[in-house]
């Protein structure tokens, strides 16, 4: 259930950034870093869709799978844990790539992006711990 809560937090964060990117929010509340510089860079869009929207889809899908894993039908199955571990592992890799872009290409840091990287890393850690837990 911790993964579901983290996914929900990530979903809200990515929806906030998506709303900004789509013009529904005029200015980002950014206490530190250069959020607007990152969010307006050419790297903030992938295949014509804001990266934040891809993040929202990722977090929503992870939330659905995590909640489904709490249902009686799937509670004793390791398939959900393996799926979540693979999903969040891919999320960590993509997030690491985006963080690299921030540091070495854009030369700006977005606190929301770093927050998302932390959330997905925590999700992966929780999933991996569950997967490796002795039965």
Keywords:
135 residues, two-stranded antiparallel sheet, mainly alpha
CATH topology heading: de novo design (two linked rop proteins)
Share of β-strand residues: under 5%
State the share of residues found in helices, binned by percent.
over 70%
Number of domains: 1
Instruction: Report the span from N to C terminus.
Output: 18 Å
Strand order of the largest sheet: 1-2
- Profile the largest sheet: 2 strands, antiparallel
Q: Tell me the name of the CATH class.
A: Mainly Alpha
Task: Tell me what the structure shows.
The chain has one domain (2-132): VKOR domain (de novo design (two linked rop proteins), Up-down Bundle), CATH 1.20.1440.130. Helix content is 73%, strand content 3%. It has helices at residues 2-21, 35-39, 51-68, 72-75, 78-106, 111-132; strands spanning 45-46, 49-50. It has a two-stranded antiparallel sheet with strand order 1-2. A hairpin with a 2-residue loop joins strand 1 and strand 2. Helix 5 (78-106) packs antiparallel against helix 6. The model has no long low-confidence stretch (mean pLDDT 92).
């Amino acid at each position: 259930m911790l993964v579901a809560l983290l996914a929900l937090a990530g979903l809200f964060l990515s929806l906030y950034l998506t709303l900004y990117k789509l013009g529904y929010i005029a200015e980002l509340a950014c206490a530190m870093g250069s959020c607007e510089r990152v969010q307006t860079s050419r790297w903030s869009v992938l295949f014509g869709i804001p990266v934040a929207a891809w993040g929202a889809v990722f977090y929503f899908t992870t939330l659905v799978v995590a909640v489904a894993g709490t249902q009686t039908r799937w509670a004793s199955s390791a398939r959900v844990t393996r799926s979540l571990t693979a999903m969040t592992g891919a999320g960590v890799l993509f997030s690491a790539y985006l963080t690299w872009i921030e540091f070495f290409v854009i030369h700006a840091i977005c606190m929301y992006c770093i927050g998302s990287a932390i959330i997905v890393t925590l999700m992966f850690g929780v999933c991996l711990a569950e997967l490796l837990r002795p039965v």
